[in-house]
Amino acid sequence: MRFYASLVYLFLYFPIAVIVFFSFNAGKSATQMMGFSVGWYGHALHNPFVTEALRTSFIVALSSASIASVFGTMAALALQGMKGRVRMLFDALIYVAVMVPGIVIGISTLIALVTLFGWINPVLAALFPAGQAPQLAMGLVSLIGAHALFSMALVIIILRARLAGMDRSLMEASADLYAAPFATFRQITLPLIFPGILAGFLLSFTFSFDDFIIAFFVAGSETTLPIYVFSSIRRGVTPEINAIGTMVLMTSLVLLVIAQVILRRGPRQEAA
Amino acid sequence: MPSSTSSAMNQAPAIAEFRAASKRFGPVLAADEVSLTIRRGEFLTFLGPSGCGKTTALRMLAGFEAPTSGAVYLDGERVNDMPAYRRPVNMVFQHYALFPHLTVAQNIAYGLLQRRPRPDKAEVAAKVARALDMVRLPGFGPRRIWEMSGGQQQRVALARAIVNEPKLLLLDEPLAALDRKLRREMQIELQTLQRQLGITFVLVTHDQEEALSMSDRICIMRGGKIVQTGSPTVLYDEPISRYVADFVGKSNFVDGIFAGHNKVTAHGTTFTGRILCTPAIGSKVTLSIRPEQIELTRDGLEPVQVVNRIFLGEHTEYLVRHDNMGELLVRVSRQAEAAEGPFDPGSEAFVRWAPDAALILDQD
Lengths: 272, 364
Known about the structure:
The structure holds 2 protein chains of 2 kinds. Chain A is mainly alpha-helical. Chain A has one domain (55-271): MetI-like fold. Chain A is built from 11 helices and no strands. The radius of gyration of chain A is 23 Å and the shape is globular. Chain B has 2 domains: 3-237, Rossmann fold (3-Layer(aba) Sandwich); 250-362, CATH 2.40.50.100. The chains are: A mainly alpha, B alpha+beta.
């Protein structure tokens, strides 16, 4: 058993290890080691296309994760207050949203937005003087929206678990001690679910930062880091790509570990 | 102690009142036309098995449940629709419900800090310190909740409630999670605290010993209804039904038919007793005799066979078999046993009891 398990892990992680390994290549080949160097990291970070793509990725990840955290939290709290069938239906729908393949989300978001823009743009054109009407198109905003939509499901799932595990009598105790509903939310509910919100934010950030498929469809002319990597691979693979890949991997890994640690710490978090 | 204060209690004004208050959860009638007056300064206990409606009654006082019909009054004001956070009432929750992200002091100060205008910081700190002293946890303020033992958490929950000087302190099975010795200690402490503060305590419990030892009055509930309300002494000496006699203390029961006057026929024999219910002739009643009211003797009129002897320190419990009444539990004091000598299992003995020690009660 242990042998087979090792094989599975080797199969999963060997390609990643290879990418990390060759990112330290001194030579120009992505398959032939020519000595150790961190030169490609410097190279990547001095490439204006890479830094621009990195900037875009950060903006998208930060914005979509923030939106997803706020709205996801609100949705989870609302779901907590619902009962029976309605809640079960929404819970199921949220799990489905997470399971739908990225390519389906990408294409459907693209079609939905194109259709929507097709309706709105003529209206805008009619409202503004000729030539000055703003044109809605694919770009940063549509990408942020698409990522926020998907990440929201992640946040809801994490928070639903956390809220379900919370002692209901804490809220009653707060009300018993003269705190009106909003005061209870601010002083009790929010501090207790905050680790969940933070973990949801970090997962959303990671998801957005790594995502290629959805971004490929709805980013318009914007270039995120994964899109840059994809397009430069077509011009041949250099260890620069490996270096970028390793950096993305490390960012994601660190954020995921932090998210896990926060979720594990449970009620022992220091708040207030 | 409780009996000496209860006569004064009778004149005390009402602090809370149920007027035919009912609460329905779907098909379940959790409280069924509960009517009760709670007097200022008393220690009242709702006693009954789980599902009898005692917790629902308490939650209607706290404001967590609104009555489906009828009314709840607090200090003369109808509070059916008053939310919990407006009621001058505090509760000690069954599992304490302490806020895990706050320190002990922050937990206790929570209620004070909700007041508007916000009270002075020094004043809050002083009140918190005094409350901690009162529950014998001085200096524990900066501790985290999870660092405290179960008994200590219990005290913090108590301090968090009393620091607000509520008109009513509600206690929902507050001692259920503690071990036996600690529970005994807390019972005494709760009683002392109640005397000191003069706050009205309303306790919910299924533990008869707890109810008997602490309360001025006990309200026995069953199926959402109040069965009997009275001082512990009254409930023990004059229960109206077998249910009450069974719930408050131990007793021997013999089912029979009411034969008029003070007579009951059971298993072909006629017994006399004191009537505490209003049965029709020929209706089913129960004869109840407390174990300590029965005397075990070497000779007499009612022969029994000794089945078992259990030495319990201050007294001894005998299980004896009576031809007509079946097995009886007899409690023999140390002195009585010293005079008569111990009875061996399997030996012959006789029982007797004073005529008014046998109570004629409703059978249900």
